[in-house]
Specification:
heterodimer; A: 232 residues; 10 helices; flat; B: alpha/beta; six-stranded mixed β-sheet; four-stranded antiparallel β-sheet; 10 strands; globular
Chain lengths: 232, 238
Amino acid sequence: MENIFNYGAIKDWIPYIFSGLSITMLIALVAAIFGVVIGIILVVFSKVKITDKFVIAYIDLFRGTPLILQLSIVYFAVPQFLDRLVNGIMGMNFDFQLSGIIAAFITFSLNSAAYISEIIRSGINSVDNGEIEAAKALGVNKYHMYKDIILPIAFKNSFPSLMNEFITLVKESSIVSIIGIQDLIRRQQIVTSQTYMYFEPLIIVGIIYYLVIKILSLIGRKIEVKLAYGRS
Amino acid sequence: MVEVKGLYKSFGDLEVLKDVSYHFAKGKTTVIIGSSGSGKSTLLRCINQLEEIDSGEIIIDGINSNDLTHKKVVEKVGMVFQQFNLFSNMTVLKNVMYSLVTVKKIDKKIAKEMAINALTTVNVQDKVSQYPSQLSGGQKQRVALARALVTNVDVMLFDEPTSALDPEMVNEVLDEIKKLTKTGLTNIIVTHEMGFAREVADEIIYMDEGRIVECGNAKTFFSNPKKERTKQFLNKIL
């Protein structure tokens, strides 16, 4: 057994690898929170003439290019561009280099906002028009209609998709290893370079991802049942 | 109570109401009949401003509804829908309380009492903590009736209130509506239930292709229709 999976050699590295999980979860959480906030703003803008074109372009851009490219642009290309523009041409002296974690927060938030806005939009569209008419017939104003009827039902309807997006974020956050952030994958690479072992650290990282997502799915199911409003 | 004068309404190229005028008498029950697409539902929906009219006048309680805010209109006019349209994310009790608390700003405790009273009148008081998805069609429509009644309106619009119900549940809803016709409420009912129309209607309007063909006292309407088109319609359905 020791010849196949060298637990003795990897054992001491496990806490080091495991602590990368907090970075992974932090990026996913920040991106989910800002993604929902920006996503809602995008939905509002998509309902307004003039800004609706901007929203379509935004979503096209973030869905139409790979996340790894977006992260590289934010982390490497934008600082260089600003450096050339502001420092080079305008002769000033600013440091535009972002820390890796900030670049990751920005990229993942902007990216997930594109997906989340689509999820929320289709959730709102799924609300039965009859219920909206009933609210109108009772004199309920737009604000209360959204707050008490449309958004709760839209949230219920789109919750599985939102949970799915969060799980995707947890996994996709592994891309941050390319800019040196010490998430789970980056720590595996470091352990590999120290120990010349691939199999053990990769399997450990795989198990951590799998278990975390399994737990998230179970929590998601529980919430779904709570949100079912009597349907089971 | 409610008067419509020279009402016109189109959806795109389709003219749905063509010069419709009628005075719905206070405290009376008026039943609107006619085949599908004749404009019956649209007429109802214009009265409580779910549809905007193209031209004409709607006078509610002596005031032109152009001079009334939507909120004022719905204070006087309630509506019961074909598809019940209960708020699916709220319990039965919250469905009935909701407009009292958010629109009328009534204290929650009092609103709850009023809601329970209304639900008791339509005999669904044992379902207060259920969600709409857990009710039968007949129960849903009775809750919807309580929700519309609790706000203490003067006029009640019924848009085919039994058309979406299973046959065995039609009567439980019709019985509740029948009770209402004796309370002094001004009822305007669109329905395909001719037996029921005969029983409760004080006045009948027969509509076809967006116009009122014949209207008036329910008894003479059924026993002695004047227009040829009305006779043909009645022959077909009775």
